[in-house]
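Methods, example record. To illustrate the input and output format used throughout this study, we show the complete record for Solute carrier family 15 member 2. The sequence lines were provided to the predictor; the line carrying structure tokens was produced by it.
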Amino acid sequence: MAKKLCGTKYPVSICFIVVNEFCERFSYYGMKAVLTLYFLTYLHWDKDLSTAVYHAFSSLCYFTPILGALIADSWLGKYKTIIYLSIVYVIGHVVKSVGAIPTVGSSDVHIALSMVGLILIAFGTGGIKPCVAAFGGDQFDEEHGRERQKFFSIFYMSINAGSLLSTVITPILRSDVQCFGGDCYALAFGVPAALMIVSLVVFTVGSGMYKMSPPQGNILLEVCNCIGFAIKNRWKRSKFDSQKKHWLDWAEEKYSKRLIQEIKMVLHVLVLYIPLPMFWALFDQQGSRWTLQSTRMNMAFGHYFTIEPDQMQMLNALLILLFVPIFDFIIYPLIGLCKFNVTPLRKMAVGMIFAALAFGAATLVEIDVVKSVVDPAPAGKCLLQVFNLAEGDVSLMIPGSHLFKEPIPNLQDPAQYETLPASGEDVQFQVTFNGKTSECNHTFLQREAYSLILYSDAAGIQCNVVSDYIKKHYNGKPLLRFLNTLSEEINTTVGEVSFHLLSDYSVSPNETVNRGEYPAVSCSSTSGKCSELNLGLLDFGASYTFILMEASGQIVAHRMEDVKANSVHIAWQIPQYVLLTIGEVMFSITGLEFSYSQAPANMKSVLQAGWLLTVAFGNVIVLIVAEGATLEQWKEFLLFAGLLLGVCIIFSVMANFYTYVDSDQLDKTHMEDDDDEDHVKKKSNDVKLNKRGKSTRF
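The corresponding predicted structure is encoded as:
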């Protein structure tokens, strides 16, 4: 007899299952929260490839539950399946964490370890997904159905609690803890790995208290076999028998009428699932496209508090915990009082509309976000900005270009990028200063960005061309570099980043620093004229060039903003998260309840598998669009919103023709079918006995 929690009817074993689920969800969502930025900043993939791999991984996580269900129901049972696949899960996390250590092999090794780790994690998390909740339900006796329902509520809360905490904590581990000279992805993946180990240990500790059911045979496999037999039988015999009302009736020779009838019920629901992947195609972009959008936004709340771009994903889990009781106890009852007939399918259609509105809001935000982005030059062109450090105006003439018609003032601020031809060959341009003309040569490559530094010395005007980095950094941090005009070397440290500046108009590499005010940055020089520099506010997404020069006997930093700071605050993402979460509450939760109520008792796992497959195919849609569409981001958001609205119309038409099945009617049908089956079995046994009697007369 199972032990009970003190004063309750709950088995003690559910404590281990709930803690196991909390730790597993923490490990999964924590790893996934930083995954897109890991692809971008550590593996140095572009945003489209990063998005595609992210959704390929998500898709695999929702294809593998079918494999886990087959193993559990047909071979190992739920307990052993959870144990063995959790071990695979842990190994995947460890491999993924090792791949995030820069000192372990080359970049190819990091990619290989990362992909192997993700595949193992997908098999682990997907494989145990259909087993853990069902295993928890198995711990209750049939007479404790009320307690079982409360357990599932607690179980669902543990999932969201793990998701919420992990999406807050792991981005902090990634960005605030520096290791190996940069963001600490090894730690950000290592902590979820440790939580998965804790999950496995906790689940194993409770093994002596679990109520375990042996494998009962996989109904999903039986359903597939029945459908396959019906199709095969009809293909062979359709010319000779046209009296079947339904194509599944061709399986009656081998399978019971009850099974065939139940499959028909399930197929009616599965047909409604066909449009559903489009919702998940939008929903799962929170961790990819929406995270990329947040990296180009202002993430500061006041002077002292900022959030990381990958932390915004926690808003969904937080809003779910808030919205579920609001909808259950306020909104739905109020709608009922107004006597509106809001069916489950209508709720799901409205949920789709809210998700489409969320992407409409994301489109408006994206249009404003890109205003602070420097567009790369088109093919055959490059970008050029000019820093005039001479003590007067300078005229510049570039062959094949009509730019810079007016003289360029000294330290023109802001400097602006101009587009000019880039042939990949030496370009000879003329610079005129104080009536003297000098010639400079440089090779400009297409789609690159450059700064032309003009300065004067005893010999006249001099030119120096350096390459620029115009992309906003994917972690949202500001970029800066120094241009040293002095004849002495200078050392300075900005935050935790040190710069060693050579003399005579040398330019340091671009480095990322933390966003913040830098009114007194320490510096040192051989002359002692450099003690501290006032850099001011280094804001999110901006790229700065600080020109070090002497003024009034001191070395000062003249600030040039190459790329504008992020002007749109990240709070503008809140409406799209609110709309999407409302859509999730109305679509996802209602869809699960609808699937449960419309399925026969022994077919609920089949519909669960079908539901998970809609999530998998939704991620496949994003993968295809990310790699194939090559649209501007705001146009891609608008495309997804339009596609979902179109799918919503199709789904609404399909739902209008759907006839709901009452649960009492299902139970009555099952009882009648059971009686019919017993009658058929009795008749069949009588025939067998008669045949046996005729063949074995004594």
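Annotations derived from this record:
The CA atoms of residues 63 and 613 lie 6 Å apart.
The first helix runs from residue 13 to 33.
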